[in-house]
Design a protein that fits this description.
heterodimer; A: alpha+beta; B: alpha+beta; five-stranded mixed sheet; 24% strand; disordered N terminus; binds flavin-adenine dinucleotide
């Protein structure tokens, strides 16, 4: 049994009460959502916090998937499993189900949350790549109910660092719904449940004439944060979907990413995967957008 | 000796007619284990029990300048803080290893690997103990570490073992086997010689239950009770007696249920000794359970062999000789668990299943700043490395000769009439009939169709590989004339007692870690004396309750203790026959044993059951002249030879050419372990071992960075396979009984772990043939396979 350093623990009774506690306790306090990133770090004593505020009692308030006409809203405490099982979400954004099928294992998915995944800001986090791909925005709530909405690009400010300040919490993720959309996610892992060697998400929106109105690619594990690559979007917009085009996008992905050699693989290999997986996900995303 | 007929049922079907003897039946221990009612070391709770935690070195190589424990001693709930210096005062700072080296219990002078034990704390609870470790202030003077094993003997390499008198380098031992000159002569005249460097990387057994102990020293009785995760309780007891100077009859070692061993629980670890010292100094029971990271970084690793293999053959594919040179990394202390005269374990069987003219191996073992150990992980004392070497190099030869690898193997097998067969390295294979085993595997696989499918796929640019491995194992250590561990002969005791009502208890020295001994041994006794397995209690794991023997590892339980159980049962049956003759008023010679009863020959109506005989043995009235009451016996079995199981494995893989991910599509395993006692248990052992093989071949490796930091310190970094990485195993069997084992059984616990990695690697290399790949080292992660596809396969170390 791996034993964390001593800490105090309180269960949240409301979002604002949790924010109040965070504000009062400052950086020595952390929210615990699914706990599947935070607790392993604490047990390994890679991180120590004096206070944990458990937001699981707020699941009724913060665990939801609302699919609207122009937008999908997902509560920060929505669990991996709920994201995996939601048919409505899969219909709007098949990328979610693709990703959730390869995130961790059922035990982790039963507890781990969307908010925890984004706030952990691990460069290999799959849901961060999904949200980057879908151009999500994040709702951050502060003291006194003040809310601000930031883009994924602004949300992740570095590895393991987000725009969420002391005394703030992520409450919701918003995903714009546009017509003609299709999306997909692919991950290469050394073993089921392992973190990505590299993974890629792609989303395309086709114009009525079949050309690409817009497209986005999000990559995980190839840089300090999950990366959306604007150059790919620019290269794809207005073009007819075709293998040649995916190759071009793949080449941009390989060139634009910044992977490091580690136990999961060499930088060269990861760069190759950025290319290969970009092509694969674009292909699937276009096929889905067409059907 | 006849093969037992088994019904071809699903693996999970129980046999309604529970066999009174051999056959498929559910495991007796499973209701307890599956319902969470097992009792493991960490379940032991004693009144007043304290908890121990160990401070470990963050550095691979450093001088311990000072250790300040004052803050830790002052922390709440702390009962004792013990350093290497304190242990030195007690004469306990160093202990012998199983290979006649010494290992630090707590560091006194230097730390020699990351994770080495430096001090321990005993506290009221586990949390306080762990927290107090943070308060111990150790000043280290960091030294250059020796991490690259190839550099360990380089002039000027930092000296690791300056604790050993007169030691000036990192040399651990040299070893050779076979005939160097004869082998050189054969190589000189061979048509074809193939050479290949082959690395078996360091891996870890990673049992689900980590290591631990509860020590309870009673100062009044002078008795030490030690619950611990040990595969060899009796050997441990004797070693504690020798090391700690406690009288052996005052030491009771209890191995309760064990959550997986795989060799990880053979050595004596510093933690066990710390728990004992902790109990002695506090006067209370003390529990130590290591956590997952501690298990991975500090306990017995396996493999770590850098091998150069050479094979010589004629142009038409007759293998003539095999030669190998090995550089072995033994870590900071030589903690290898192997019979003393076998410093390289049984690596000498690297000649495999082939009839050779010559063979030679030379080996150099070195010290490095890595965790000690060396033999662990279901390896049959280094046969894993040996089989990997020969089965990989044979495939390299097949590629060179452009010959089908199955055909090459079939052409070179030792033939049935050559057994007993003495290899060129001096091992006497007891029995074998290799071709039918190989043919069966090929039949199940549909080998010819697979090759056709592969050709078709290749023409479309798809990557499909078929890999074969054929292994011969050497298990059941061993004959006491040449096998001992630290002077303890490797023979096993066994006791059997039949109660008046005909129920029985059999007491074993071996200790199951999941192998199903409580079932298998009841079945062995049942087969011999006809008492149903359900009526036979198997007692094991407690040195006060069981006879002496060397424990469970190296697939030795069935070959050694299984023989003991059969023979002790026959002894009881012989006595029962005498009593039966009196009961039936005939001579002993007039009686015939029909499983479960003695009948008067030619008069089946006149018979007595073993249960009736048991009652008579304990009951009123006189027994035959010279026969004592009771129905029990004991024995100590000394095997005359090892047993040599064999098997043919075929693996089919598909590789995604875009991502280089390997998918094991099919795996066919045909095992021959001699007489099959419980086929369901055998299949379970095989399934587990094959899964191990997938892990080693595709993902497992304990890696280090250049500073000696262990990069596999958690199960996030050290990957072990899950059900999703393995196919539905397709198993088959042949039965070639061992001629010298009383029931012809050979042991099977490690066969699959030994035999499967080469099949998988051979399949991957076969799949990559279009890329001109002839060899790629494990672990074959996607990144490493991709490198191989680009013509730059690199060794992992
Ligand atoms: C064995 C294992 C395998 C895994 N494999 C994968 C994988 O393949 N892919 C993958 O993407 N992930 C993987 N994960 C991570 C998993 O998805 C985690 O659940 C997730 O990263 C964190 O979610 P959580 O709810 O558990 O967050 P927690 O661990 O509870 O929290 C993580 C961090 O976020 C903060 N936080 C949580 N919620 C909020 C909020 N609403 N506002 C502000 N801060 C908040 C916490 O304070 C903490 O700092 C794995 C985890 C494990 C244990």
């Amino acid at each position: 049994m791996q034993v964390p350093a001593p800490f105090e623990y309180e269960r949240a009774t409301s979002v604002d009460q949790a924010i109040g506690l965070l504000e009062r306790l400052g950086s020595s306090a952390r929210l615990v959502a699914g706990g599947h990133s935070l607790l392993p770090m604490m047990k390994l004593r890679l991180a120590t916090f004096d206070y944990l505020i458990d937001i699981n009692p707020l699941h009724a308030e913060l665990g939801y998937i609302r699919v609207g006409a122009g937008e999908v809203r997902i509560g920060a405490l929505t669990r991996h499993r709920e994201l995996l099982e939601s048919d409505e979400l899969a219909a709007a954004f098949p990328i979610f189900r693709d990703a959730e099928r390869v995130i961790a294992d059922p035990v982790v998915r039963n507890r781990g949350t969307l908010g925890g995944s984004l706030c952990q800001a691990d460069p290999s986090e799959d849901l961060s790549a999904v949200c980057t791909t879908l151009d999500a925005s994040c709702v951050i709530r502060g003291p006194g109910g003040a809310e601000r909405v930031v883009s994924m690009g602004e949300f992740h400010v570095g590895p393991y660092e987000t725009a969420v300040g002391d005394g703030e919490m992520l409450t919701e993720v918003r995903l714009p719904v546009r017509p003609g959309g299709g999306s997909a996610y692919v991950k290469v892992e050394r073993r089921a449940g392992d973190w990505a060697v590299v993974s890629a998400g792609a989303a395309v929106w086709l114009a009525p004439d079949g050309t690409i109105a817009d497209a986005r690619v999000g990559l995980a594990a190839v840089g300090p944060n999950t990366t959306g690559i604007p150059e790919i979007s620019a290269a794809l917009r207005g073009r007819e979907p075709a293998e040649k085009l995916y190759e071009q996008a793949g080449a941009i992905a390989a060139r634009s990413c910044d992977p490091a050699t580690d136990q999961r693989g060499s930088a060269d290999y990861k760069r190759h995967l950025a290319d290969e997986l970009t092509r694969r996900t674009l292909r699937t995303a276009v096929a889905r957008a067409r059907s | 000796m006849t093969a037992v007929q088994e019904p071809r049922t699903s693996t999970f079907d129980d046999n309604d007619q529970k066999p009174v003897g051999f056959g498929r039946m559910l495991r007796k221990e499973d209701p307890r284990l599956l319902r969470g009612r097992g009792r493991f070391t960490d379940d032991v709770q004693l009144p007043g029990m304290l908890h121990l935690a160990i401070l470990r070195s963050p550095f691979a190589h450093a001088r311990v300048v000072s250790v300040d424990t004052s803050a830790a001693e002052a922390a709440p709930g702390i009962r004792a803080v013990v350093t290497g210096a304190k242990l030195a005062e007690l004469g306990l700072a160093w202990m012998p290893t199983l290979s006649n080296d010494v290992q630090a219990v707590l560091a006194t002078d230097k730390v020699r690997f990351q994770g080495q034990e430096v001090a321990f704390v005993v506290a009221d609870d586990r949390y306080s103990a762990r927290d107090a470790l943070e308060l111990i202030d150790v000043e280290y003077e960091v030294l250059d570490p020796v991490i690259d094993v190839r550099q360990a003997l380089a002039p000027g390499a930092p000296l690791i073992r300056d604790d050993l008198d007169g030691k000036t380098d990192n040399h651990c031992f040299d070893w050779e086997t076979g005939d160097a000159d004869a082998t050189a002569a054969v190589f000189a005249r061979a048509d074809v010689v193939v050479q290949q460097d082959i690395v078996y990387p360091r891996v870890h057994p990673a049992p689900m239950e980590t290591c631990g102990a509860v020590a309870d020293f009673d100062a009044v009785e002078g008795k030490l009770k030690l619950w611990s995760t040990t595969q060899a309780p009796h050997a441990h007891r004797t070693l504690y007696a020798i090391v700690a100077g406690l009288p052996e009859h005052k030491i009771q070692v209890i191995a309760p249920d064990i959550g997986g061993g795989f060799g990880n629980k053979v050595p004596i670890y510093p933690g066990y000794v710390c728990a004992i010292v902790g109990s002695i100094v506090t006067g209370k029971p003390v529990k130590w359970m290591e956590d997952r990271s501690e298990n991975l970084i500090s306990t017995g690793f396996a493999r770590d062999y850098i091998m150069r293999g050479e094979i010589a053959a004629t142009r038409d594919g007759k293998i003539l000789a095999i030669r190998t040179n090995v550089l072995a990394d033994h870590g900071a202390f030589n903690g290898t668990a192997a019979p003393v005269k076998y410093p390289a374990g049984f690596f000498g069987v690297f000649t495999g299943s082939y009839d050779l003219e010559a063979a030679y191996c030379s080996m150099t073992a070195v010290y490095t700043n890595k965790a000690p150990g060396g033999v662990a992980y279901a390896c049959s004392f280094r046969i894993t490395e040996a089989v990997y070497l020969v089965e990989r190099i044979v495939d390299c030869l097949a590629a060179e000769l452009e010959m089908d690898p199955a055909e090459l193997r079939l052409k070179n097998f030792i033939q049935p009439d050559q057994f007993p067969y003495e290899t060129k390295t001096g091992w006497v294979y007891d029995s074998g009939n290799y071709e039918p085993t190989m043919r069966q595997a090929m039949d199940i696989a549909g080998y010819a169709q697979l090759r056709a499918e592969q050709a078709e796929k290749r023409s479309r640019g798809e990557l499909m590989g078929i890999g074969i491995s054929f292994f011969t194992e050497a298990v059941g250590a061993g004959p006491r004339k040449n096998m001992d561990i630290l002077g303890l002969g490797m023979a096993d005791g066994c006791e059997l007692r039949v109660h008046p009502t005909g129920k029985a208890v059999v007491r074993l020295s071996v200790k199951t870690q999941g192998q199903g001994h409580e079932t298998t041994f009841a079945q062995i006794v049942a087969e011999e004396i006809g008492i149903p397995p359900a009526d036979i209690e198997v007692v094991h794991g407690d040195t006060d309750q069981t006879p002496f023997g060397l424990g469970t590892y190296g697939s030795r339980s069935t070959p050694v203790s299984g023989a003991a159980a059969a023979l002790v049962a026959r002894k009881v049956r012989d006595k029962a026959q005498i009593i039966a003759s009196a009961m039936l008023e005939v001579t002993v010679a007039d009686l015939e044993w029909v499983k479960g009863s003695f009948q008067v020959k030619g008069d089946p109506g006149k018979s007595v059951t073993i249960q009736q005989i048991a009652m008579r043995a304990h009951g009123a009235g006189d027994l035959p002249e010279g026969i004592e009451g009771g129905l029990e016996a004991q024995i100590c079995y000394n095997p005359s030879n090892l047993t040599y199981p064999h098997g043919a494995y075929i693996c089919v893989v598909d590789i995604d050419p875009g991502t280089a991910q390997v998918k094991v599509r099919r795996f066919i395993a045909v095992d021959d372990c001699g007489t099959r006692i419980n086929p369901m248990i055998i299949e379970g052992q095989v399934h587990g071992g094959l899964t191990d093989g997938v892990g080693m071949a595709l993902m497992e490796m304990i890696a280090f960075d250049e500073d000696g930091n262990c990069l596999g310190a958690s199960l996030m970094d050290y990957l072990i396979p899950t059900a999703l990485e393995v196919p539905d195993w397709e198993t088959g069997y042949t039965v070639t009984p061992s001629p010298h084992h009383p029931i012809g059984a050979k042991g099977v616990g490690e066969s699959a772990t030994v035999g499967s990695p080469p099949a998988i690697v051979n399949a991957v290399v076969d799949a990559l043939k279009p890329y001109g790949v002839r060899h790629a080292d494990m672990p074959l992660t996607p990144s490493r396979v991709w490198d191989a596809m680009r013509g730059r396969a690199t060794p992992p170390i």
